[in-house]
Amino acid sequence: MTNITFLSHASAIVESKQSTLLMDPWLIGSCYWRSWWNYPPVDRESVESLKVDAIYITHVHWDHWHGPSLKKLFPKDTLIITHD
User: Residues of 27-41 as b/e, b for ≥16 C-beta within 10 angstroms?
Assistant: First the structure.
């Protein structure tokens, strides 16, 4: 069985018995030079407890490939899957 949990905007967690995939992790702070904010904000407890096997980025816009979220929340060796 697979479970999908939507966190905000385009961010979602896809969980199966084998692994956990995070999609489009804009989870903290603002985007586009402080002109966009997640509303409602992502639950802090959900963010702090995230443990993922891989991150899937659907496309390279800052609200999907969010540098501050990636740098602050995930180890550098986390697998990131995206297009060419």
Answer: beeebeeeeeebeee
Q: Which of 84, 33, 40 is nearest to 63 (CA)?
A: 33
Q: Reading across the β-sheet that carries 54-56, which strands appear in turn?
A: 3-8, 11-15, 20-23, 54-56, 79-81
Q: What is the pLDDT of residue 44?
A: 87
pLDDT value of residue 25: 95
Claim: this prediction has a pTM higher than 0.85: yes
What are the residue ranges spanned by the domains of the chain? 3-81
Q: Which residues of 49-83 are buried (b: 16+ CB within 10 A; e: fewer)?
A: ebebeebbbeeeeebbbbeebbeebbeeeeeeeee
Question: Residue 51 has which token pair?
Answer: 């443990």
Reply yes or no on whether the pLDDT at 19 is more than 90: yes
| Cα separation, 49 vs 56, whole angstroms | 18
